[in-house]
Design brief:
Elements (H helix, E strand, L loop, with lengths): L1 H14 L1 E2 L2 H11 L1 H21 L5 E10 L5 E5 L9 E5 L4 E14 L1 H68 L5 H36 L7 E2 L22 H21 L5 E14 L13 E13 L7 H67 L5 H35 L9
Parallel strand pairs: 1-6
Antiparallel strand pairs: 2-5, 3-4, 5-7, 7-8
Pfam families: OEP
InterPro entries: OMP_efflux, TolC-like
Subcellular location: Cell outer membrane
Length: 440
């Protein structure tokens, strides 16, 4: 079953759609939840701006009410009003029924907090736009890293498949010699054990490939059951410019902190605005009906009278003393601003370090790749010569097994060196702020 697993896996891959790195990245940007949520946050920022802008626009509200007074309040009035000087008379005021309807308008004329809020809202939109860009770059980075890991593991599986086939052929030759009395049983048993060990490695790697593919599909937002095929031409070593130090201040991580710093600045400014006076205007027009009966649809002939009235007012609010609460909030906002400034400095150093580390890793990987490429070539020649010598009785079985193991190890070292290079290449592209180029 283990022997048949790899051909089955390859058959499934052959039925899947060819997936280049560009295809994988673009698919992830369209389907991964993180990228979709970041775009929704940008859209939501527009609604936040509209919400703040509403505070500077007129507010109009209508109102209506109906009141029934079962017992009217009696008020003590001087009898002089009723022709009885020197006495006090209890007289009810008002009517049993009262109804009113009106429209009221309120307009802010000056409120520094509102104007600062508008500036902060626009910066919030910019913050989410940069955050969406950073999220897309993180999606690209994860997809690229996992894409290359899948490729390397498939290459390792291909090496084991080839080694298994060669080892099986040698085992069959030894078995034929053993059947004719020309080989020892211990040699046949050792080759059978070696073949079983290679098969076990293949099965383990088959499972690892399947798990890594599932991880890649998850980071792409692709259904797990979808078969994928990664073409061999995608994994190449290309020359890179490592001399020019990039401007890390254009990185999304840095720009996001700059936007956050600006938001903290406006937050502090909005708190300081509480020291400023605010001025607003309000106006209203109302219609009032009173009488002994429910006023609706009634006339003066029914004892119901309708009157209208209107008000226009200006409202000035002058802060005098808030118990030092505003001052404390201003100082807290100042601390947040200073902390962000320190984060920006630290992030700048971190981004510069990431570039240097990626460049160093690439240089080392290129040396390792060159060495391992020659090592694989030499190991293949040694294995072929050893197999030929063994068949001619000029080499021992131990020499043959050692040569095969050395070839497998050399191939794995070479593919791992390629993986290290490609992962470092992704980090270098990221350090230059050019991850979006992987979508082209």
């Amino acid at each position: 079953m283990a022997f048949l697993a790899a051909p089955t896996l390859r058959a499934q891959q052959a039925q899947g759609e060819v997936l280049t790195l560009k295809d994988a990245v673009n698919y992830a940007l369209k389907n991964k939840a993180d990228a979709k949520k970041a775009k929704l946050e940008v859209e939501n920022a527009e609604y936040q701006i509209q919400e703040v802008r509403a505070r500077a626009l007129p507010n109009i509200a209508g109102s209506a009410g109906l009141t029934y007074n079962p017992i009217l309040q009696q008020n003590a009035l001087p009898g002089d009003f009723f022709g009885a000087p020197g006495t006090t008379i209890l007289a009810p005021l008002g009517q049993k029924w009262t109804s009113n309807a009106g429209v009221n308008l309120t307009q802010t004329i000056f409120d520094q907090a509102v104007f600062t809020g508008l500036q902060a809202a626009r910066t919030t939109r910019e913050f989410y736009q940069v955050n969406a860009q950073l999220t897309e770059e993180q999606v690209i980075e994860r997809v690229a890293n996992n894409y290359y890991q899948v490729y390397v593991q498939r290459e390792q599986l291909r090496v084991l498949d080839s080694t298994y086939k060669n080892t099986e052929e040698v085992r069959n030759v030894i078995k034929g010699q053993f059947d004719n009395g020309l080989a020892r049983k211990i040699d046949l048993d050792r080759m059978t054990v070696n073949l079983s060990n290679i098969n076990t490695q293949r099965q383990t790697l088959i499972n690892a490939v399947a798990l890594q593919e599932n991880t890649l599909k998850f980071y792409m937002g692709m259904p797990i059951e979808t078969p994928i095929v990664i073409p061999d031409t995608q994994f190449t070593v290309t020359p890179l410019n490592l001399e020019e130090m990039p401007d890390t201040t254009i990185r999304s991580e840095y720009q996001l902190l700059k936007k956050q710093e600006k938001l903290y600045y406006y937050n502090r400014k909005a708190i300081v605005a509480e020291y400023y006076p605010s001025l607003s205007m309000s106006a209203g027009y109302n219609y009032l009906g009173q009488g002994p009966e429910m006023p609706w649809f009634k006339k003066p002939a029914d004892g119901v009278y309708w009157t209208d009235y209107s008000t226009i007012s200006a409202n000035l609010k002058i802060p005098i003393f808030s118990g030092f609460g505003t001052r404390a909030r201003v100082r807290q906002a100042t601390i947040d601003l200073k902390k962000t400034e320190e984060d920006i400095k630290d992030t700048k150093l971190s981004l510069d370090r990431d570039y240097k580390n990626a460049a160093t890793q690439i240089k080392n990987s290129l040396i390792t790749i060159s060495n391992q490429r020659e090592n694989v070539k030499l190991a293949k020649e040694v294995m072929d010569d050893t197999q030929n010598n063994y068949q001619n009785g000029l080499a021992t079985l131990t020499d043959l097994l050692d040569a095969e193991n050395s070839y497998i190890e050399a191939q794995n070292n070479y593919t791992n060196a390629l993986l290290d290079f490609k992962l470092a290449e992704v980090q270098l592209i990221k350090a230059k702020g050019e991850l979006k180029t992987l979508t082209n």
